[in-house]
Amino acid sequence: MKKWNIFKMFNMQFDELHQRQFLWTVPYTELTESLRLAVAEKLLGELFEGKSVNEPPRR
């Protein structure tokens, strides 16, 4: 897949999630952080070909 297609897909997913979730409030700090990581994993997974967000980059 070409890089511009990957970025286009990322932007589309980000916009979709942002529209659905930007008004959400989560009163528990631990849950908030867990949700942030889950969303990042979903969005960034496309860009980094399924690698975990917390996984160090390969060289």
UniProtKB/TrEMBL annotation:
Superkingdom of this protein's organism: Eukaryota
Keyword Transport: yes
Pfam family, one: Exo70_C
Domain Exocyst complex subunit Exo70 C-terminal: 6-44
UniProt cross-references to InterPro entries, sorted A to Z: Cullin_repeat-like_dom_sf (IPR016159), Exo70_C (IPR046364)
Keyword Cell division among UniProt keywords: no
Protein name: Exocyst complex subunit Exo70 C-terminal domain-containing protein
The species this protein was found in: Brassica napus (Rape)
Lineage, top ranks: Eukaryota, Viridiplantae, Streptophyta, Embryophyta, Tracheophyta
